[in-house]
Here is the input.
Amino acid sequence: MRALRIGLLGLGQIGSAFYSLLHQKREYFEKEIGVRFDIVKVAVKHRSKKRHVSIASNILTDRAEDLIQDASLDVIVELIGGTRDARRLVSQALRAGKHVVTANKALLAEYGDEIFELANRKRRWLLFEASVGGGIPVIKALREGLVANRFDSIYSIINGTCNYILSEMTAKKTDFKDALNQAQAKGFAEADPRLDLDGVDAAHKLALLVRFAFGGKVKLKDIYCEGISRIRSEDIAFAEEFGYRVKLLAIAKKTKDGIEARVQPTLLPKDHILANVNGSFNAVLFRGDEVGDSLLYGRGAGGHPTASAIVSDLMDIALRQETRFDEDEIQMRAIRKPLRIKNISSILSRYYLRFHVVDRPGVLAGIARVLGAHRISISDVIQKERSVGNIVPLILLTHDAHERNVRNSLRQIDRSHGIQGKSQVLRIEGN
Ligand code: HSE
Here is the structure.
């Protein structure tokens, strides 16, 4: 029977789920799949901490190096998250001749070049299915199932926490804070939820998708990233009136002068397939030149789905054990030449603009004049009745406009008399 001896780094939410999965399905893997997975050692920060899983104390260590130095281990599964220790330990594991499976998208988004290169140099597998889309086999789809395609675009919902919050705010009118508390209680959120809310987690994942879909290096800082913290319930309600839902999308598009790569709260028509992906679900919509549109949908966060993806990588390693390691050409292509990522200021999009304005003659005309002067054409307007004092919300949708022009006009409008506070600007996709 094929067998893998595993060292596990980290026993948090994902580590515990992974440990339990291998424990509970041991017989199934051995009898029906023909693979034996043995977790031989587990490294944790604090050995005495109370755990959700019962684990023999003789396999627990608080010295991660014990795993690296254990010559009997075939694979290190890295689930500690963060980049500092993970970078050091993953590199040490590869240098020590071990394969590595990781769920760490931050690590690969920031240090992918050096880690993929090291894995190839050391002729070891570095697999990371769990880093994007939880239990959905997104990386496998890109590397294998869709390998015949050149991609025009990827539209994705790849942060379960943000999708959960926006879905709750839309369906149940829950406020932002309550929805975030629920997402944290359900175990979707990162240890530092700002990574979710600021769009950074989604940007890490998009960086990986772009590397493998478009075949080249991507610097994380080149991916434009906006989170959901400034989305107000009123924006969700106004979007709804215009026939849209608000979703945090991670988008990559090939254009004639480079690749657009951005994470942003986006208005999507209600009947768009991604507008109907709710809760902690993730979805990735690829547009390939051979398959056309291809949608992957599933649970993108949480212990069980992520553990499922980790096992799929381990299975690959177990199946490849007897084959000779040749250069992983697809991984090398993803680190060879830099991709040309467009600056956000040069994109063309439709926009949702929301202002709080003094309700008096000439204010709307003033806004329209500034937009017109920047060649921005308005497609739709709503102004609400007075509710608080003399201030009313005014919402405009635009036709396609250049981001640079939109930003310049908003700077000017926000300084004008009759405008209260900072305007809200969201991009519209999918019409
Ligand atoms: N915090 C992530 C999410 C979990 O909410 O999608 C998996 O990366």
Notes: The pocket of L-homoserine is lined by residues 134, 159-161, 188-190, 196, 201, 300-301 (CB under 6 Å). DSSP finds 15 helices and 17 strands in the chain. The chain has three domains: 2-137+303-336, 138-299, 344-428.
